[in-house]
């Protein structure tokens, strides 16, 4: 009887060790890479690091809603002409943007469903885009407009 309990405990210990070291089991429900979190947080910090949480959430929703989930999130962030913040000195994560990125990528924070575009009305120079954007149902925030 003692021997069988010993083997049971030993086998449970071995199984728990194997589960910890098996990456398939450890990351079973993760749909993104660590680089995705870092880059997502970095672009949020670069584009709207001074914004309040609501505006940052809307901006994060724009990026998330454009991401097709089959490729790295970099495909959205680094797309030509999309986000100027990629080239900014502020392109690095902050504690706040990391928290928002992790929550949104883990789907604990659901993105605002309808927003796919954001622009800064004070800095945008593409007149055609601004004229088109003004005809949309716009959400106005202090630094960006969203639709």
Word description of this protein:
The protein has 147 residues and is mostly helical. It folds into two domains: 1-29; 34-146. Helix content is 51%, strand content 4%. It contains seven helices and three strands. It has helices spanning 2-21, 23-26, 34-48, 53-66, 74-77, 95-105, 127-133; strands at 118-119, 139-140, 145-146. A three-stranded antiparallel sheet has the order 1-3-2. A hairpin with a 4-residue loop joins strand 2 and strand 3 (145-146). Helix 3 (34-48) crosses helix 6 (95-105). The protein is globular. Residues 18-30 have low confidence and may be disordered.
The chain-level structural class is: mainly alpha
Instruction: Indicate the low-confidence ranges by residue numbers.
Output: 18-30
Q: Roughly how many Å is the radius of gyration?
A: 21 Å
Share in β-strands:
under 5%
Order of helices and strands: HHHHHHEHEE
The spatial strand order of the largest sheet comes to 1-3-2
Shape: globular
Count of DSSP strands? 3
Number of helices: 7
Helix content: 40-55%
Q: What is the residue-mean pLDDT, rounded to a whole number? A: 82
The first-to-last residue Cα distance is: 69 Å
Tally of domains = 2
Which sheet architecture does the biggest sheet show? 3 strands, antiparallel
């Amino acid at each position: 009887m003692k021997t069988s309990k010993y083997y049971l405990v030993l086998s449970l210990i071995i199984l728990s060790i194997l589960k910890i070291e098996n990456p398939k089991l450890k990351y079973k429900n993760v749909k993104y890479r660590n680089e995705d979190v870092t880059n997502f947080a970095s672009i949020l910090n670069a584009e709207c690091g001074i914004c309040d949480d609501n505006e940052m959430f809307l901006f994060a929703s724009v990026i998330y809603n454009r991401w097709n989930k089959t490729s790295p999130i970099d495909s959205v962030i680094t797309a030509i002409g999309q986000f100027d913040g990629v080239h900014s000195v502020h392109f690095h994560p902050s504690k706040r943007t990391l928290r928002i990125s992790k929550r949104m990528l883990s789907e604990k924070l659901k993105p605002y469903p309808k927003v796919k575009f954001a622009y800064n009305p004070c800095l945008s120079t593409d007149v055609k885009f601004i004229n088109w954007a003004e005809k949309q149902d716009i959400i106005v925030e202090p630094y960006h407009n969203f639709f």
